[in-house]
Design brief:
This protein is an alpha/beta fold. The chain has a domain at 4-9 and 41-58 and 116-302: 3-Layer(aba) Sandwich (UDP-N-acetylmuramoyl-L-alanine:D-glutamate ligase), CATH 3.40.1190. Helix content is 34%, strand content 23%.
Length: 305
């Protein structure tokens, strides 16, 4: 199996809810559930690999505070080389709603100052493997070095996967330009349906695949995650679709990041596009339907390559 690694945002998630209707200013609302847990796009992906018992690396940093120490403890040996920055650790407060949607309030904290020079030494031993770049639009300084990261990976036979997330200011011209540069060096693009439609102007996810692939190198795969409808992907003229298993959804937070973990784990084992999609969908569905979360895959699927 090829090495797996992720680089990007790890933060603290405080999840509370369900909340409905939206509260009026100056009032207090009592909620039934709360959960303080490690999160962030890169963090969620690494947690899923850990849950599957897969060796992996996560290149990240935390703030020099109580939350930073708590996060490092949660990831154990994987956090041994993490850098502690002189800022507060990124914190997201998520409010869940009865319809399954959620609202996040995020303080970016240490994320904008993450630096490639600090994270690069954490990625030893992944030559010939897969490296996921997560949360680019939240990690300003690191994202500015993405061209250098892409060159470094290419020189070592490392396939880059990209999940930049939604730009906090929307998809303006500058954000589209940055994305085009990043996608031009990625072998796997992993974005959600809303991002795909906003980027391409397409009315349907299926129609967004061709313009996304046009931004990427020959032979690259573009994957669009569509929640309960599963995922679709394209690579050259090939098209694939995987339905999401029917489950009772408890918590969708981090579902897309968990999909990324399953998809890339399957690719690392030599799976084709359709099997990789199905693996991502199955892993995400299992995670969002269990509490505490469980990261498991059907033997029939995980045995396929």
């Amino acid at each position: 199996m090829r090495p797996l690694a992720v680089m990007g945002n790890v933060n603290v998630d405080l999840i509370m809810g369900p909340a409905a209707p939206w509260p009026q200013p100056g009032t207090e609302v009592m909620l039934d559930n709360d959960d303080l847990r490690p999160g962030g796009s890169a963090g969620n992906t690494a947690l899923a690999w850990m849950g599957l018992g897969l060796p992996c690396r996560i290149a990240a940093s935390v703030g020099d505070d109580l939350f930073g120490r708590w996060l490092a403890d949660a990831f154990g040996p994987l956090a041994a080389d993490w850098v502690r920055q002189p800022q507060a650790t990124c914190l997201s407060v998520g409010l869940t709603h009865p319809d399954g949607e959620r609202t996040f309030f995020t303080m970016r904290g240490h994320l904008p100052e993450m630096a490639w020079a600090d994270l690069r030494p954490q990625l030893h031993g992944i030559e010939g493997g897969l490296l996921l770049l997560s949360g680019g639009f939240l990690t300003d300084r690191l994202a500015g070095d993405y061209p250098a990261v892409l060159g470094w990976a290419a020189a070592r036979g490392i396939e880059v996967a990209l999940d930049p997330g939604w730009p906090p200011g929307g998809w303006g011209a500058a954000e589209r330009g940055r994305f085009a540069v990043w996608a031009g060096g990625a072998q796997h693009l992993l974005i959600n349906e809303a991002e795909a439609l906003a980027l391409t102007g397409a009315a349907r996810a299926e129609a967004a695949l061709a313009p996304l692939l046009a931004m990427m190198p020959a032979g690259a795969a573009a994957v669009i995650k569509a929640g309960a409808r599963g995922a679709i992907a394209g690579r050259g003229a090939e098209r694939a679709h995987a339905a999401a298993p029917a489950v009772r959804v408890l918590d969708t937070i981090g579902a897309g990041d968990t999909f990324n973990a399953g998809y890339l784990a399957a690719v690392a084992r030599g799976a084709g596009l359709a099997t990789a999609l199905a693996t991502g969908a199955a892993l995400a569905s299992r995670a969002i339907s269990t509490n505490p979360r469980r990261y498991e895959l059907p033997e029939s699927l995980w045995g396929a390559a």
